[in-house]
Predict the 3D structure of the following.
Amino acid sequence: MATTSIIATGFKGGLGSSFHGSWGTSLAGEDYASVAKSVPRWVRVGKPIRLQPVMKNVNEGKGLFAPAVVLTRNIIGKKRFNQLRGKAIALHSQVITEFCKSIGADAKQRQGLIRLAKKNGERLGFLA
């Protein structure tokens, strides 16, 4: 067995530390050449996988209206369903905005009502 000594310098003041260890084979001569040949020079890297953002409803599949929502989505297709859902949410937000204007609520209260409507929709299964 060969004993190898590695001295690390490069710290301020020339601080040195050494490692004394024994390796079953050394990386000098023939062993180094065989290791160098087994390591590829170029490595192909594929396209990075881009994950879709995950916006999951914690109550997905739960709620009184969830079965009807899932059935409708399966019948009309996901793309068309999401378009209709977007329009319905926009209309509901407009109704909330008009209501806030009529009672004199400020923007912070309006935003709170919209958040409350979203939470209620999740619980009832409209966002399943």
About this structure: The chain has a mean pLDDT of 76. The first helix runs from residue 30 to 38. The two ends are 67 Å apart (CA to CA). DSSP finds four helices and two strands in the chain.
